[in-house]
Amino acid sequence: MRTGAPVDDCASAALGRAVEALRRGEVIVYPTETFYALGVDFSVPGALERLYALKARQPDQPIALIAADLAMAFSVVREVPAAARALAAKFWPGPLTLVLPAAAQLPAGLIGPDGGVGVRVSPHPICGALAAELGRPLTATSANRTGLPPARSVDEARAMFREHVAIYLDGGVTNVVAPSTVVGFDGAGIRVFRAGAIAASTLRKHLK
What's the CATH number for 9-207? Predict the structure, then answer.
């Protein structure tokens, strides 16, 4: 399935199995508008720990989320600065992760040292369908072990994780060269945590 394509009956069955796996606390691989991602339901005890172990990721490196829509994205944060609302309105759905003050109920594995959680709304139909069916955002860390390039296809992801991932959702080969841009907020301005698909100059120009 390509970005922007409708979710057909066959894909819907696969999505249903993926959501069932998420609710059991298992790890899935799914396509996004950038790279393939590893998804878990952060609300299931032990799921985030399983994800960290699978990626060989340090616990002080928080994991971002993908939401179905703006309302779901903002449901996991405590407050939304005006600058964040302006960027979300312009660039979501899209490859822009906003780091915002985390809501109180979120687990530590999602929260950075400054108390923020990263979240975005993806234009990829599989992302939206997964989060909508799950009823909450799911993790959106790239499908790779720490230090290795992110997977651009199911075959690349499967070669890395094999049976350690419950479900692989195939969205074809991605042709992107950059991850999502990750920004936080300092007053009316932005702080770039990771350069990516949307240039920081484009974001700052929009805020002006």
Answer: 3.90.870.10
